[in-house]
Amino acid sequence: MLSVSTAWDDIGRYIMKRLEEDTDPDAMDENLRADILRIIQKESSATFLLVCLNMDTILAEPTIYKRRQALEKITKDPGLEGAYNSTLDRIRQQSGGKCKLGIEALMWISRSVRPLKTEELCHALGVEPGAEDLIIDNVPSMEIVLSCALGLIIIDEKAGTVHLLHKTLQEYLDKHSIPFATAHSMMAEICLTYLNYRSIRALSPNPGYGLDQVLRTMPFLDYATCCWGYYAATGVTEPVKTLALRFLGEHEKHISALILWQHSSGKYNSNYDNIMSGLHCAAFWGITEIADAMLKTECDVNGGDCQGSSPLVWAAKHGKERMVKFLLEHEDVTPDSPNNFGRTPLSCAAGRGHESIVKLLLERGNVNPNSSDRECRTPLAYAACWGEEGVTSPTGKCHNTGI
Prior knowledge:
It is built from 22 helices and 3 strands. The chain has helices at 4-20, 30-43, 48-59, 64-76, 80-92, 98-110, 118-125, 142-148, 167-175, 183-195, 198-201, 211-217, 221-232, 238-248, 255-265, 278-285, 288-295, 311-317, 321-328, 345-351, 355-362, 379-385, and strands spanning 116-117, 153-156, 161-164. A 3-stranded antiparallel beta sheet has the order 1-3-2. A hairpin with a 4-residue loop joins strand 2 and strand 3. The longest helix has 17 residues, at 4-20. Residues 91-176 form the GPI inositol-deacylase winged helix domain.
């Protein structure tokens, strides 16, 4: 372990190196140089990250006066929060579209469902709202994105993914959410815009084992498919609703149906056409506002996917209680309809331990608690098999369900 004195020596050497590499020597004099070395070491608490950010802030200024102002600000607002404040201010002060690019890059990374690959981030940033197709010349390079983020983004070269500079930056951005107040609706809109692009809709809904090649060609397709609903579920705006209904209206013919099936089931399905409807997709995400709009058209509330599972089965299986309640209120719904394997909504909910959904289904009265599938397993058997204590008890009875 390095001693404190060694850390201070390293920090001092780093500051001197940055000062020697200063590209604007006319914006530096000996007094300012000495003050920077003294004050940055004093205020940085031997934290190398803080030193880097503070030096970036100072050396970004074009005159001695501006640099001294930046140094004085550091003394008034020391610590990482002050450094992050200053860096975000510098991002906002960038000219042209660089400010927007830097802020949106931070938004995507800090609000991502999983780590984004570099190509995914660049293509997400290249989506132009309202465009009918991807404008490839609008996709920024990763080098430009890094430049606009002013050091707050780093790349994991081995994994090919992008990350925030440090976990404390994630904490800072979570605390100061104003720049990203509408992040989820914006991100849902970007994902759905991409999925509605002509070039995406023109893809074969079942390219066989060429799917990997498609995903390499369309880098944002997998993320947009698997995450748009996560963002939309937090609150459906009118633009998101309009885009979602357009996308889901022909979902059976969209390649996203295959991708979502693969992710949700863990299996690659190349044997079926019309894998799932848009209502199945809405049920999977639990977005009742969109399901309601679809059911006001000619959408079949009991329609089966490629294995005969209804939207209610999807909602029950994936624990979407609000969606289950919504579908059960529809006058035409068949609450006990089995799929091709004999699995009912109750069976799927019990097998996943969704106790509240089990109760909702049994309260209907026309749901058979003892129905068996093709393997002669009942809902109780599935619950016991999966060891879901919230549904079964040691005596083999379902807690407060009546099974």
